[in-house]
Amino acid sequence: MSPPLSAPADAEPLIRWEWIERNLSDDIAEGLREHLILSFTPVLLGLAVALPLGIACARWRRVYPFVLAATSVLYAIPAIALFVVLVAFTGLTYSTVIVPLTLYTLSVLVPAVVDGLRSVPDQVRQSAVAMGFGPLRRLVRVELPLALGVVMAGLRVATVSNISLVSVGSLIGIGGLGDLFVTGLQRDFPTPIVVGIASIIALALVADVVLLAVQRALTPWERAGRGRSAAAPEPEPVGGEQ
Amino acid sequence: MNAIFSALEWFTRAQQWSGPDGIPNRVLEHVWYSLLGFALTVLIALPAGLVLGHLRRGRPAQITGFLVTSSANAARALPTLGLLILAVVLTSAGDLVPILIPLVVLAVPPVLVNTYAGVRQVEAGLRDAAEGMGMRGRQVLLRVELPVALPLILAGMRTAMIQIVSTATIAAYVGLGGLGRYIVDGYARQDYDSMAGGALLVIALAVAVQFVFAGLSRLVVSPGVRAGR
């Protein structure tokens, strides 16, 4: 992908391929396995909580400002602080990393579900009512499918951030591929660090592409609309308004 | 809950409040690194976002738009700790400069994207009106587009500042001072009180940043712009 890099200062190259070969089947594979568990469990848990919570917030509008304030404060708290506070309750287990990441996932997904449901045009809702859809059937058959595009966009953001945040867990010894960073620092040896960074970015990229494909498969109508205006993609601003 | 009370007790010990490892000094260090990183970030990202957003015609504008968007997505995937450790292993440990580089690299995209998107989203009619009044490009940018884009720009800056505060915490692992020291040193000594105390201080700082930006947006965003949104 990029031209071979080398450290200018001394003879130690940025990447020693033989180290990768030697450690591929244990350190790297084990880190990857742990990384997958630590990053995807929170996404699934977060989705399971965010859907009902988001539906409730969209229905009872008074509740939403409180939930939004809570999630935006939560999102501001650095992961390492949450990990450390949790160690007292969950010890040095996977839960210590999974719980904070689930909370971060929630703070991305709940607004996404609410925005998605609110983006359903009123005439569509009224048509569904006119066709005799009850509230539950309207939600499941009409509103949720139409909200799916926004929800999936949130899911992609949450998944990619989780994949990169897991590595912070290596500061308390549970960091998946992030443990390679610590190895590299302790031995003053760049190869594991580069391998760690590259595999985390690659993992995030693959996850994003897969989710994008799922999103496209589930919402074919959006593609038809987008085809016409695909020339200039508008950037999505971050950190919504208060 | 005992663990939390015990950590709160940590705050009451006299030695926490003086000397180089005292809370006042560590808070000051943390705020200093964060402001330094933030200033560099804004210095780079704000003018770039304004200019890129303002130049909207032709193919180059489309390409830069795509690049700006991708940079934000890519930044989300970058593992902070890895960048910090790589910067330190490749240079000399403990220096501020190699640590500031990843700090700024991670904080530039949110400011850049929000500034760019904010300027782009200014209504065409508003710009035409400004030009009709005889404003030049630079005046349109600074007196119309910038004020209207300000809420989004501030949201991006807030995201960047939060990112910087939390990255500066992690930077204690590679020898930087600041609040992260309590967490990293506490972990090394298996001193949970110090770790939790440090974590609580970091949380307080992050919440304070939120409040500062909420106050700032009240102060600087024009009432007309606020009412319209």
Care to describe what's here?
The complex is a heterodimer of chains A (242) and B (229). Chain A has 242 residues and is an all-alpha fold. Chain A has nine helices and no strands. Chain A has helices at 17-59, 64-76, 79-90, 94-118, 122-130, 135-165, 179-187, 190-218, 220-228. Chain A is elongated, with a radius of gyration of 21 Å. Chain B has one domain (3-227): MetI-like (MetI-like fold, Orthogonal Bundle). With 229 residues, chain B is mostly helical. Chain B has ten helices and no strands. Chain B has helices at residues 2-12, 23-54, 58-77, 80-90, 96-120, 124-132, 137-170, 180-189, 192-220, 223-228. At the A-B interface, helix 2, helix 3, helix 6, helix 7 and helix 8 of A face helix 3, helix 4, helix 5, helix 7 and helix 8 of B.
Low-confidence stretches of chain B: none
Known CATH architecture of chain B: Orthogonal Bundle
Overall shape of chain A: elongated
Secondary-structure element sequence of chain B? Answer: HHHHHHHHHH
Output the number of helix runs of chain A. 9
Global mean pLDDT of chain B: 86
Total helical elements of chain B = 10
State the major sheet of chain A: none
Subcellular location (chain B): Cell membrane; Membrane
Membrane topology (chain B): Multi-pass membrane protein
Domain ABC transmembrane type-1 (chain B): 27-213
Pfam families (chain B): BPD_transp_1
Structure summary:
The complex is a heterodimer of chains A (242) and B (229). Chain A is mainly α and 242 residues long. Chain A has nine helices and no strands.
Key terms:
heterodimer; A: 242 residues; mainly alpha; elongated; B: 229 residues; MetI-like fold
Walk me through the topology.
The complex is a heterodimer of chains A (242) and B (229).
Chain A: H1 17-59, H2 64-76, H3 79-90, H4 94-118, H5 122-130, H6 135-165, H7 179-187, H8 190-218, H9 220-228
Helix pairs in contact in A: 1-4, 1-6, 1-8, 2-4, 3-4, 4-6, 5-6, 6-8, 7-8
Chain B: H1 2-12, H2 23-54, H3 58-77, H4 80-90, H5 96-120, H6 124-132, H7 137-170, H8 180-189, H9 192-220, H10 223-228
Helix pairs in contact in B: 1-9, 2-5, 2-7, 3-5, 4-5, 5-7, 6-7, 7-9, 8-9
GO cellular component, one term (chain B): plasma membrane
Membrane topology (chain B): Multi-pass membrane protein
Protein name (chain B): Osmoprotectant transport system permease protein
